[in-house]
Each structure stands twice: as structure tokens, then as C-alpha cells.
Amino acid sequence: MRVRADDLSSVPGDSRLLRPAERRELCALHLLGSRREEWIRGRVAIRRAVARWIPHASRCRVHSESSGAPLVVGVDCTVSLSHDGLWFAVALAPGHALRIGVDLCRRVHTDRLAPILRRFTGRGVQLDPVVQWAALECVLKMRRWGIMALIGSDARVRRDGRRVLVHGIGPDASLHVIDRPEFVVVWGSEGQP
Amino acid sequence: MTAAAAVVGELRTLIVTAAPDPAQAAAVHGCPTDVPLDTVMPFSSVIALGVIVAVEDRFGIVVTRSALQAAFAGGATLQKLADMIQRLRGDAESSVGDARSR
Q1: Which residue in A28, A32, A77, A125 has its CB near the most CB atoms, within 10 A?
Q2: Residues A63 and A125 in one domain
Q3: What's the rounded Cα separation, in Å, for the pair B21 and A113?
Q4: What value of ipTM does the predicted structure carry?
Q5: What's this model's pTM, rounded to 2 decimal places?
Q6: pLDDT digits over A156-189, tens only?
Q7: How far apart are CA B90 and CA B85, in angstroms?
């Protein structure tokens, strides 16, 4: 599994770079302004990751599943995408044996995350709120679960060096974490159920 | 101004205040009430739940799991959030009334 985090402006936000099917999807979504540009950049970032990490990959396009998760069509791989403000992270694993998740959370959210964790999770703040949130979101993405799965859950989150361990929200998960001054990225993978 | 319009107006302000990048959220000030908020601004889970915390504080309500599920189903809009607030306010007022009449 490969992961890249970068500045979103490093990826072009030009809709002419989209495949026809991606362009049709964009039209149907009726996104406006910065959201539209963010969506385009996300699609381009995923296709660039495929080209970089899968040797001799054929032409592919990105389709959104009903959950909103991106699905690469035309190349045998699994991807996950996260963006927050000016930053994005993309994760990719060859084949479909694994389900993967990545979450990038900016540190600017620290003060709003503490009350959210206290209000909506059974155990409240257990460690750095940004790391905790990114870990929980990563698990939800990996399992294609919506945010409602987190509400009132008894999720227990523990940091162990460069890993975060999540218990109590489905099977136990051991995730990778990197800290940067502006953001935290958490990613992980597990076998398909 | 109707009560519903006043709630929508307050919601617009709460959402822009709760967003980490007010400039990106500014479009909420003028967007139609039935448009999914995720189409006009980055309305991630962090921002959405931050708005719910702010709504609970401002309106003195407790947003239940089922109310949240209904408001977020198919994408949260100003109208759905305003309906949720008014319904929960009504429930809160009627339960106070029930308690007083007992």
C-alpha cells in the first residue's frame, strides 16, 4: 500500500483533464466554486497515483461509489482519498484483496474536535484529538461506514509510536500515523470481509 | 420574518463561523435552502458535527441520533437542519409543558 500527502494546488483543477464519464458525474453533482475544483483535483490526484505506482497501468477513470468512495475503473487497484483545506492524501493498493482507508486532518480543527469527540463518542477525548479523529475516520472509510457508525460508539483509540490502535468499532484496527506541523495523516488496510 | 426564516438565517451564520475557512464557507450566506451544503462548501464530517454542537448550544436542544440521521440523509441542507431544529425545539417545549402540567 502506498500513501502520498501533498498540497492540493500541486494537482491541476482543470475540468478538461477529466475523462468523459468523470465529467458527466461532475455535472450531475452540481458542485460549486471551491468544492467543484477540489473534486476535480481529487480525481486527477488519484489517476496520477495510479500512473506512478502501478507500472504500465492502462488508461483509467475514477467513479464514485454510492458511499462517495472513489473506485478506479480500468486498472486493478483499490484507492482511498482524503482532502482538507489545501491538503490531500491518496492511498493505493494493487488488486482488490484489501480494503484501505486514509484520512488527512488539519491541526486547525483541534479546538472543534475536542467537543465533537466528547459529545458524539462514548469515551470522549483519549489522545491528541486530531490523531484520534483521523484514526476514527480512517476506520470508517476502510469499512465504507458513514459517520453515524461513530455516533455513541464505544471506540477506544490508543497511540503506540507511529501506529494508532482502534478497538470497539468493528474488528480491531492497527493504523499508521504521520504527524506534520499542519496536519495528521492516518492510513490502514485490512482483508476484505 | 417567519420563525423558520430566522432559524435559517442563524444557521447560515453558525455554519460560516464553525468552518475552519470562512472564505470557503461564505457561499452559504446566499445559497438556496434546499441545496446540499456539501455542494457549496467543504462540509466534511468535522464541520458537520461542529455545526451540530454549535446548534445544540445556540438553540438549547439535544440533537438525537434519529434526528441527525434524518438531517444528513441524502446530504444536509439548510432546510433539513432548520426543520430538525424546529422539531426538536417543539419537542423540548412540549416536554416542558407536560412536566409543568403534571
Answers
A1: A77
A2: no
A3: 15
A4: 0.88
A5: 0.91
A6: 999 999 999 999 999 999 999 999 999 999 999 9
A7: 8
